[in-house]
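Request: When convenient, would you put together a sequence paired with its structure tokens?
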Amino acid sequence: MSIRPVISSTGLHTPTESISNAELVESFNAYVAAHNAEHAAAIAAGERPALEPSSVEFIEKASGIKARHVVDKAGVLDPAVMRPRNLERPNEELAILAEIGVTASRDALARAGRDPGDVDAVLCACSNLQRPYPAVAVEIQDALGIEGFGFDMNVACSSATFGIQTAADYIRAGNARSVLVVSPEITSGHLNWRDRDSHFIFGDVATAVLVEAADMAPASHWDILGTKLKTVFSNNIRNNFGFLNRTDPEHRDDPDKLFIQEGRKVFKEVVPMVAAMILAEMERLNLPQGSMRRIWLHQANTNMNRLIAQRVYGHEASEDESPTVLDTYANTSSAGSVIAFHKHSDDLSAGDNGLICSFGAGYSAGCVFVRKVG
């Protein structure tokens, strides 16, 4: 007989610094002006195109984003730098990715009334890991004082939901009873802040999800009704950073070593894929279209979420049915749907059904259907 997995709690770490669209546009446009002035002769000769400035109106219309939290505001906004600085630390110090993961994990443990000694495993599930090894998950495990095991996993923006299913499978199989799924996302490190089409997309954050056996969970928790994962290969969202690939330390000559995407293709291909996946899994779980009290979608783009939610509900979803944190957090990769769940789930009643859903590069998509208990 398999053990029933549940979500006992979630945790969140939000960086203190935030960048508004107005601040971001001012910095970007200063870079554009300097670039165009430096290359004025080549631009006039038709040898290279002039860069276009950005605007607050363009950003909000394209994405719905109004601000984003970052770990180094000064570095990002400096037109001569435009990237986070001083994130690497001596090996003897806790790495910054582990540090923010630990903070989110402690929040989740406190909310569940759980001691680190009760946890069996740590999965670090995020888009851009700080190093190949030792695993960041093992560093988080050590910092928290957890016995057992840990490992890193990366499925881009779907990492958290893939991690939740992995944790649930460990519990069903009896290989663990309490698993932390930690998603530290310093997305500002892989964003090309000099690219007009994407310089506004990402923000930094860390989340944690505590997945446990039902018989040890707190009275108020979330039953995991079912999970579904899907991947389809695509180059439309890609990041070629890696130790086998040449990388310019300044990130100026190798834009493909940072985040790149074909946004319109992603929109056109991912929305129907994710909506069909959700509806098929709802049918398999005997969850009628009107049975979803709330859905917490990946926070990438307001228009994508609106269309997916509309197909799930069969009508234009309200903010209550499909809440967003995109306006203040921006796209936080795999952490986005977990932030939405963390901030917009306490008001639900026992018996209410919900869906945590993420989607992104790969393509990858993950669904976690839950029901409130207690």
In short: The domain at 223-373 is CATH 3.40.47.10 (Peroxisomal Thiolase; Chain A, domain 1).
